Amino acid sequence: MKPKNNRLSRILMNFLLLVYAVFAIFPLIWMVLISFKSDTEVFTTTFLFHPTLSNYAAVLLESNYVQYMKDSLIVAGGSVLVSVVVGIPAAYALARYNFNRKEDLAFQILSFKFAPEILVVLPLFMIYQKIGLYDTYLGLIWVYQLICMPLLIWVVRGYFEDISVEIEYAAQVDGYTWYQIFFKMLMPLVKPGVVAAALLSFIFAWNSFTFPLILASSKVQPITVAITKYLGTDTAHYGQLAVAATVSAIPAIVFALCIQKHLVRGLSFGAVKG
User: Is 4 inside a domain boundary?
Assistant: First the structure.
């Protein structure tokens, strides 16, 4: 009876996974289909229609879509770079040094990630207007640290804590400097965590909507905000909107597929601490 029960369990599990996959992927497939439809066929057809590339031509060739993608890459990439440069030393300090209220500080850093963006974006709007950071790359990269840095610090800190401090002591006895220990010994060990956290931070920054909506205008327009332009003023161009959304998802998807191994390893080992 056990082999039969195991077989039924596998069949049921595979069926549930299939249902979930269809549920998760179908909206993406539907969005791609809409991108090849004319405005008149969006609501009048389903899977049988006359494909057209007019929406792609209008979005990619006749608008500033490429500039919007460039803005998103600069802001999201710059935010991740700053988070990595600042967050790794901060994670090491939280893992290795003891000081008063260390855990309170660590929890406060993590809490920034869960704070509603609308709570901080309105005061920041007034501050940015006064100090000249409104509608600039630097302003968005700065505020995106609320999205990127807490996650990176929390994940990488777990990796440093999993590495025995005795390894560093032994290396010091052998004559290694602190910089040699950090960059030649510790960094290769925490690389999976850094890659995983950096990837997730990039995706979170890429998908951010509230911050660029309020803190940017005409000079800097990330794709999440610029997509709304394709809704039109008098009527919605759903085909063009689908093209803009489909193409904007490609960088994050390709990035995730390229480093999938590091992502899985980085989130399954040393990333969660009690």
Answer: no
